[in-house]
Amino acid sequence: MVGFLSIEASRWTDHLSFPLDLNLLVGQLTSQQKSNPCVLHALNVQRALSMGNYHLFFSLYNTVPNMGGYIMDHFVERERIRALLVMTKSYVPSNMVFSAEPQLFRPRRYISVPLVFIVKELAFENVSEALDFLSSHDCAIFTNPNHSDAEKAFDSKSASAPLAKLMEEKFRKVQIKGAI
Q1: Residue 63 and residue 41: Cα distance in Å, rounded?
Q2: Per DSSP, what are the bridge partners of residue 155?
Q3: 124-157 burial by CB neighbour count: b if 16+ within 10 A, else e?
Q4: What pairs with residue 142 in β-bridges?
Q5: In the chain, which end has fewer C-beta atoms inside a 10 angstrom radius, N or C?
Q6: CA dihedral 160, 133, 45, 150 (to 10 degrees)
Q7: Helix, strand or coil for residue 142?
Q8: What are φ and ψ of residue 141, in 5° steps?
Q9: How far apart are CA 30 and CA 43, in angstroms?
Q10: How many CB atoms lie under 10 A from the CB of residue 108?
């Protein structure tokens, strides 16, 4: 199966860009090829990435067949940072943002996210691995830094700016200006 994809991909790489190649190759898969557990998993990973569904992506990362985890390891760091960015924007209690009267506006108050939740949601093996990841990316910002590791809570408001800067610097796509 992998041989089929590599032969087909090498045949078309001179003519099409990668996203089009992928769509073309997926469209050429037979139902028998799509029913292969490895191909089905790869298609689900691609769907999770294209939809920005980090929960599905990391659950697929935990259940990857064969040696596919080594391939996913190449982009899991980027997806963890993306997921943390989503968390910094979305973990806001709705009762503190909106009010019954439309003319009243309450300022956005962020909530902290328990570190053990981040460990589970982003497929870290343990709390220390998550702490190392956050520290290495300068976003180990907690609302209660003096508590034990299991009780720490990620400060979503304070971490949002460093994460956005990191995403821009490390994983920015190159834009070519003036291209037709």
Answers
A1: 9
A2: 112
A3: beebeebbebbeebebbbbbeeeeeeeebbbbbb
A4: 154
A5: C
A6: -90
A7: strand
A8: -115, 120
A9: 13
A10: 11
Place of tokens 């991909």: 9
> If we measure between CA atoms, which residue out of 56, 2, 11 comes closest to residue 29?
2
50-124-113-164 Cα dihedral, nearest 10 degrees: -50
- Total-model pTM: 0.74
Backbone angles phi, psi at 113, to 5 degrees: -110, 125
Two tokens at 67?
A: 């040696």
What is the amino acid identity at position 90?
S
First vs last Cα of the chain: how many Å apart?
A: 36
Residue in the block written with tokens 């996210």: 113
Angstrom distance (rounded) from CA 158 to CA 112: 10
58 CB-near residues (< 8 Å, 6+ apart) = 79, 83, 121, 122, 123
Q: Are 33 and 60 in contact (CB under 8 A)?
A: no
Amino acid at 1: M
Contact 58, 121 (CB under 8 A): yes
**Domain locations in the chain as residue ranges:** 75-171
